[in-house]
Write a structure and sequence with these properties.
Elements lengths: L1 E11 L3 H10 L6 E6 L1 E3 L2 E3 L10 E8 L1 H18 L2 E9 L2
Protein name: Transcriptional regulator
Organism: Arcobacter roscoffensis
């Protein structure tokens, strides 16, 4: 088993490509996207049946080494301030 960081981000779908660009810039090339999620947060109720991506949210997660996370942390913080979104980071164990 290997210690890793799991980064989970919920953001408006229209900003997904900008986040993926940020990931690539920081060497994060593996991730999972779950599109059209729904929930109720700071921006109110977001439903998964929106016709356009304007009001829908995506859930993106990745797992990376701690150093990669430390190198990426401030970029994600700046991204969240500019484009909104929620980011949760947790310690996880990668089963090898």
């Amino acid at each position: 088993m290997k210690k890793m960081k799991k980064i989970e981000i919920v953001l408006e779908s229209v900003y997904t490509n900008k986040l993926l660009e940020l990931f690539r810039k920081n060497g994060i090339t593996r991730y999972t996207i779950i599109k059209d999620i729904e929930g109720n947060g700071e921006h109110g109720l977001r439903q998964a049946d929106e016709v356009t991506d304007v009001f829908s949210n995506n859930y993106i997660f990745t797992v990376c080494d701690e150093q990669v996370f430390l190198n990426t942390k401030e970029d994600i913080r700046s991204f969240s301030k500019k484009y909104s979104g929620k980011c949760i980071v947790s310690d996880v164990m990668w089963l090898l």
